[in-house]
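Worked example 4.2. Below are the chains of a multi-component assembly; read each line carefully before continuing.
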Amino acid sequence: MPKILIVDDEPLMRNLIEQTLGALEDCGVELLAAQDGISAVETIIREKPDIVFLDVMMPKMNGFEVCSITKKDLGLSTVHIIMLTAKGQEFDKQKAKEAGADGYITKPFKVDEIYDKALEILRLRPAV
Amino acid sequence: MIKSRLFTKTILTIIVLFAVISVTMALSSGWNLYNDLIQEYTSKGTAIARSVAGSSVEILLNRDASMIQATIDQFAEIAGVSYVYVVDAQREIVSHTFVPTIPDEILRIADPGRESAIKDVVIGGRDYIDISSPIVAGAVGHVHVGMDKSMIRMQIGRAIARQLGAILAILLVSVAVAYILVNKISQPLNKLTEYGRKLAARDFSATVEIKYEDEIGLLARTMQSMAKELQKAFEGYEEAIKEATAELQETLAYLTNIIDNMADGLLATDTSGKITRVNPTLIDMLGLHGSNIIGRDCSEVLDTELAGLEKKSRRFPERTLTLDIDLTRGRTGKAVATSLHTQPTPETPEGTSMGSIILVRDITAEKETDRMKTDFISTVSHELRTPMTSVLGYTAITRKKLQEILFPRIALKDGRVEKTMRQVIQNLGIVISEGERLTNLINDLLDISKMEAGQLEWKMQPLSVDDIIDIAMDATSTLFEQKGLQLKREITGTIPEIVGDRDRLVQVMINLLSNAVKFTEKGLVTCRAAADLGEVVISVTDTGIGIPRTELDNIFKKFKQVGDTLTDRPKGTGLGLPISKQIIVQHGGRIWVESEVGRGTTVSFTIPLPSTRHGEVDASQRGWDVGMPESDQRHSQTA
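Applying the procedure described above to all two chains together yields the following structure tokens:
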């Protein structure tokens, strides 16, 4: 069963993404959530999600670090990481790329953008 | 006392005059006297000779020599008579007055025959006039009388000596008279000269005595009144000069005080780059205490950047150059360099260059304020985006759920319900579109604040103008389709690659194209590009409502949109053109607008081609403000 992890310290934002991707639950996609970087890493290790929507600015550990740990330290290359960057500046995009992120979406995003992205990634997978 | 040249000249003239007169007179009177004496002697000799001859006839016939001797001895006593002798018909001397012997020369004197004769003879080395007279027509003999010529000379000598003595006496008297006369004239003249010299040396206390009211007295009086006038004039000038000097010193002191008390640092250089003036603020700002920098070359004293600015200012006197520099104690300064030149004159309409002036302002506080402002805007923008994401996201989800899940399940029999449902969807649409506009505004605000603070990173790379136009046209094609407007593309010739930031230039093009769409209801929008004179000119022309002339100046200002924002619904953030301008200026280009109400608008911008970019000055250098030539600025709408 495909898994999508939503990481954001803002409950409203988590909820919004969860609601956006809610339709996918009907197709059998499991939605997971984490509220900070450390619990995100723990969830990634435990659940090995297919997609992680990862916020950048979070307490304890920021999104870049989570991404870097996942991709480089844990070597989990199959985990598709989409950074949710609020600033939308070149600097952040570059940092996301360096950390090994597979893509980024700039806040404020359109809900369809998240949904389409998730669908696009999951469709590429032979299992779905 | 001044040696009288006049006296010397007069005396010399008199002496020369007297010498000439006396010599001429002496020669003339000597000659006359000589002739007179010769005649007198000759007459006297002739008379004696005749007398002797007359009285000697009988005696000779009787051969009484002693009688003759007695006669001639009488005549020999007469002054001037040297000798008398009588010869007989046989030329034998009968009687004579020679003592002691008859000179030989006498024997050689021939008798004249029957007539009297006068001859000059030399006897014993002396000159004589020999006058002979026949006795009875020479039949009996001859009488010879010798008159001494040296007597004549002696007499002439004496006469001349007397004359010269008299002339000398007259000369002496004349000199004495001349001395007195000349002294009378030259002394007052000398005094006047002395007086004149003192006046020339500005000794107006000097006086001159006026004894007589003659020409010299008049001259002295004139000189005195002239001296008084001069003194008055000089005193006036001195007073004026004193006042002017005091005023100048006061002005100078005032200017020095202004310069020295300025909050900005000041440095002035001459045309060769040598420092001519600095104020204490600059010394303090640059930490130049204790070193005498006046007269030294900028490159020896200042750091490379500031010295370079000074040099550039002299090379480009028409430009005002600025440079951010590091000051002491970790502070930041802004140096502004301008050329220093004299006031224009008809001969030099641009004035004569005198060097450069650099003003340095401590902008640490401004920088800090700028940074804080930028940080503030950045933070605010970020903090606004997060709730905006929620607003937009939740509204979109709500609309989607209403449309996809809830509304299909509601019975549409009630007209009011149907209307309400339509309004709800419409309202949610407005919330979303307004939310998106707010998001765009936040994005633009963030962009422009970063651009203004110079915090934006520019990814300069070689770019194809065609590509940029294509990307922007693709991105805006939906807008054109929605309004049913035609978008035309006109590229003239082959356009060389430019150097620029791809995303930012695309942003400019999208801005211009979306503006064109926004303000055009029918017709077409044309996007043109052409390379011309070292730059690429890109323009977007629409057939829209146009911009009134009065509004043209505002369109590059922030939050200034054409039209009345109260009655016309704003269609953008009001930051599109200011951002575009910032981007174009950063690329070294210029942007301008031409418009006619009711006919349309053309917004054009240029990007310099790489080979000609900025000419000699590189804009990418930190802090350099290259500006634009004045001729170009008329096209540029400065915000």
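Take a moment to check your reading of the output against the notes. Chain B touches chain A at residues 382, 385-386, 388-390, 392-394, 396-397, 400, 435, 439, 443, 457, 459 (CB under 8 Å). Chain B has 14 helices and 17 strands.
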